[in-house]
Amino acid sequence: MASAALADPFAWVGQTIDGKFRVEAVVGEGGFGIVYRALHLGLGEPVAVKCLKIPPTLAPDERERFQQSFLEEGRLLRKLSRATPSVVQALDVGAAVAPSGVWAPYLVLEWLHGETLEAFLARRNDEKKGGMPLADAAALLEPAALALAAAHDEGIAHRDIKPANLFLTDAGIVGGATPHTPAGVHTMKVLDFGIAKVIADNASITRAMEQTGHAPSIFTPFYGAPEQFNRRFGATGPWTDVYALALVLVELCSGKSALVGDDVTQLYIATTDVSLRPTPRTHGVRTSHAVEAVFQKALAIEPRGRYTSARLFWDALREALPSPIEADAPGTTVVREVSHDSLTPSPQITEARTSKPASSRRSLFAAIGAFTFVAAALAASVVIKNRGEIEPMPTVSRMGPEFGHVELPSPTAEMILVPAGSFTMGHAKEGKTERPAHAVTISKPFYLDRTEVTAEEYARCVAAEKCTRSGVHGPGVDEAEATKFATFCTEPDPAKARHPINCIDQGQAAKLCAFLGKRLPTEAEWEYAARGKDERLYPWGEEHATCTLGNFSRAAGQCPGRAKGTMPVGSFPDHASPFGALDMAGNVWEWVADAFDPGAYTKAERKDPLVAAGAKGVIRGGSWDFASSAAKSTTRYAFDRATGHVSTGVRCAKTAD
């Protein structure tokens, strides 16, 4: 590899690390560190040394904690790499002060000859070869899938599976052969196990990196699962690797990225688009219904809808792919020649084998060892279809047994479904405008945003010229006040893209919802979604608001480590409303469609109430700069319709017709 142009910030080249590894050259740089080629002085063999880039501002006690977690991950990687040859072999782990004076944790790994899957795909793209047949792409990827399966069996997740972290290596070259992979056999290995986790789990490291303007990229957006973009979808885990592995496989068989977008926002939208999952069929690959169904499950938006491990995903794919192929014995060379008749949908495959004693083990995929394909096969983007015609995917209706076995419209990833029903609106003992408590019927089911609309979504509306810029404004707001509070507005700050939009008035909120194909909820719909039918005081129940339940105004010293202002949407995933909405108490007040009428409540039962006329509007839910008592589910706050301030935001609704 050419390495002359690569920088050496640690000044390790020409030096020896801990008296054991003589560093020869810089060979690569990633988001977390620098990779060197070095010579293992004891064994006389080349090794790779990865040094992590840790901010020098880290306090000694924080450094010690990080080192311990790093060493633990290194030992875990060593254990995992000994269990499966398809994880890059870990040889040593440690930390040293580099010649540059910087403290540097390092991993020593086996030296691999070959190329990353990223380089392989780029070369195929340059040569205009297109996608691979799905069965062949799966055979190429199988060692990585089985490595992930072994890791998942141990409760270990990678969290950054992508072509750059998958390496095609020749096991017959020094540093590649293992007892499990004989010489002359090409295989795939998984790189960077544990690195993303050890960085992400250390808040001191991530904060220090953010302060230097080099925040760590814990995952790669082109291969990101919904929960990595937004934790309101849940925690990351083995199911996150399943999602990424499926994306890589789609890319291999289609010849193009599974997720399409020009920036992080577009990729987030792509990965959470309910109507367009990034499956093989979406990208023009013809395959059977059974195979497509496997990818639909592997690429489910909600983690609980996916396979929970790579082993379950791969077993399902093995079962779904047509014409199982018997696995060849280790060392067998399989030469496949594929002729493609333009009048037939499937490539015609013939095989020639030179065999050692046959193995009794059966596998869907032929052994990965030394596949040789003619150029026509590699260029083919059509896969072998199942017997008969390709079946369309069925439409599955969501049933709601909890509502009397009535068929309900399906919720979306971004919205919750609130069924039609009756509830008690208002409160007998709270504020005057909340009395009297009275029965209200919502006659139609509706969707409500799971979280408040974000600043990045508002920015899209502005870019489309459907919304005006946000900012502190309105009757009675002078320039001095607008300037004073401007720094708390989320839209202008890229770092707050996933915070709720604020500093908008009711009209701006309504235009934003219209841009998104939605509308403002009525005040009655909002309260029903927030408290359900059990008359709870807060969306999560009766427990009084604390730092762990929402983002409210607090006295100095409370909620240590929390900055003043808004927080990312979905920051309190365990404290949802009865129907699953998040942050309905705190963060920002939410505009509703009604005008404010202090005497709107009566003892008479109401159906779908809406106050249309009035000088002031209504905001609901409390905010970061109001006391937690304002975040009760029944609290109503009158606010000038034309005013946008640091605590006024929105979540949208849509009738479920």
Write the layout of secondary structure elements.
Elements: E1 16-17, E2 21-29, E3 33-40, E4 45-52, H1 60-83, E5 90-97, E6 103-110, E7 114-116, H2 117-126, H3 134-153, E8 166-170, E9 186-190, H4 195-200, H5 203-211, H6 226-229, H7 238-254, H8 264-271, H9 289-298, H10 310-320, E10 333-339, E11 348-354, E12 372-373, H11 375-379, E13 398-400, E14 406-408, E15 415-418, E16 421-425, E17 438-442, E18 446-449, H12 455-463, H13 479-485, H14 506-515, H15 523-531, E19 589-595, E20 606-607, E21 616-620, E22 637-640, E23 648-649, E24 653-655
Parallel strand pairs: 10-12, 17-20, 19-23
Antiparallel strand pairs: 1-2, 2-3, 3-4, 4-6, 5-6, 7-8, 8-9, 10-11, 13-14, 15-18, 16-17, 18-24, 19-21, 21-22
Helix pairs in contact: 3-7, 3-10, 9-10
3D structure, described in words:
The chain has helices at residues 60-83, 117-126, 134-153, 195-200, 203-211, 226-229, 238-254, 264-271, 289-298, 310-320, 375-379, 455-463, 479-485, 506-515, 523-531; strands at 16-17, 21-29, 33-40, 45-52, 90-97, 103-110, 114-116, 166-170, 186-190, 333-339, 348-354, 372-373, 398-400, 406-408, 415-418, 421-425, 438-442, 446-449, 589-595, 606-607, 616-620, 637-640, 648-649, 653-655. The protein has four domains: 16-110, Phosphorylase Kinase, domain 1 (2-Layer Sandwich); 114-320, Transferase(Phosphotransferase) domain 1 (Transferase(Phosphotransferase), domain 1, Orthogonal Bundle), CATH 1.10.510.10; 333-379, no CATH class; 414-655, paralog of FGE (formylglycine-generating enzyme). The protein has a six-stranded antiparallel beta sheet with strand order 1-2-3-4-6-5, covered by helices on one side. A four-stranded mixed beta sheet has the order 22-21-19-23. The protein has a three-stranded antiparallel beta sheet with strand order 7-8-9. Strand 3 (33-40) and strand 4 form a beta hairpin. By secondary structure, it is an alpha+beta fold. Mean pLDDT is 79; it is low at 172-184, 202-216 and 323-410. The protein contains 15 helices and 24 strands.
